[in-house]
Design brief:
Elements: H1 9-30, E1 39-41, H2 42-49, H3 53-62, E2 68-70, E3 73-77, H4 78-84
Length: 90
């Protein structure tokens, strides 16, 4: 059993509720809903990057692109494909 001195039950309840409200308000400000990813097929990725399927596979094995599969179908996240593109310094 916990005993609290010099604080009423109502005051303790108010303090707890105030702290919770402040925390929830902060979380609400920080929360940004995320958009679902746009998926592209292996064929779309190959056409977009103008490469062959073996090149996509090689890039996946090297960690350049992340491939996702459902059964035998292979997909890529469009934003990850775009992020893999890096500028070339002249």
């Amino acid at each position: 059993m916990v005993q609290l001195f010099q604080i009423t039950e109502e005051k303790l309840t108010d303090n707890i509720l105030t702290a919770i409200k402040k925390e929830l308000e902060q979380l609400k400000k920080e929360f940004q809903p995320q958009q679902p990813p746009t998926w592209i097929s292996r064929n779309e990725a190959a056409k977009m990057l103008d490469v062959s399927f073996p090149t996509l596979y090689s890039w996946h094995k090297k960690g350049i692109l992340t491939a996702y599969s459902i059964g035998t179908r292979v997909y890529y996240k469009l934003d990850e494909v775009n992020a893999a593109l890096t500028p070339i310094a002249c």
